[in-house]
């Protein structure tokens, strides 16, 4: 006889994979990039920040921001902001550039969190994936040589 299902779901590896696959994929992506870091150009993380912001504009434009052009304008402003942070961090170089770039990645993680909560512009799993990549990349920028 089957037991009644309660509101609490018990943990299982399958539950983890189905509910947090985006987080696991983000960890794997970041680990792969970290392993490849010795062969990547120094500006790779700055280009990544620019690319992360560009994806929101492109995705939002394709989805037409669900009929709200203000969302596209907001994402264009984010693109400009994160691009400026990436460029200035490369120009600064040294520790100041690293700190600014890490702050930019953390700022983009907040951006992802807002998009995840709003469930707008990009799909929630993408916002989750990107937010985890952003936080891990900020840490890598600060702590990896």
For the largest beta-sheet, the strand count, sense and barrel status come to: none
User: Unreliable runs, pLDDT <50, ≥5 residues?
Assistant: none
Q: How much of the residues is beta strand, in percent?
A: under 5%
The value of Rg in angstroms is 18 Å
Terminal-residue CA separation: 58 Å
Shape: flat
What is the tally of helical segments?
6
β-strand number: 0
Strand and helix layout:
Blueprint: H1 13-19, H2 21-36, H3 44-62, H4 69-92, H5 94-118, H6 124-143
Transmembrane segments: 21-40, 46-65, 72-90
Keywords: Membrane, Transmembrane, Transmembrane helix
Describe the structure.
The protein has 145 residues and is mainly alpha-helical. The protein has one domain. It is built from 6 helices and no strands.
Top keywords for this entry?
145 residues, mainly alpha, 77% helix
Summarize the model shown:
The chain has 145 residues and is an all-alpha fold. It has helices at residues 13-19, 21-36, 44-62, 69-92, 94-118, 124-143.
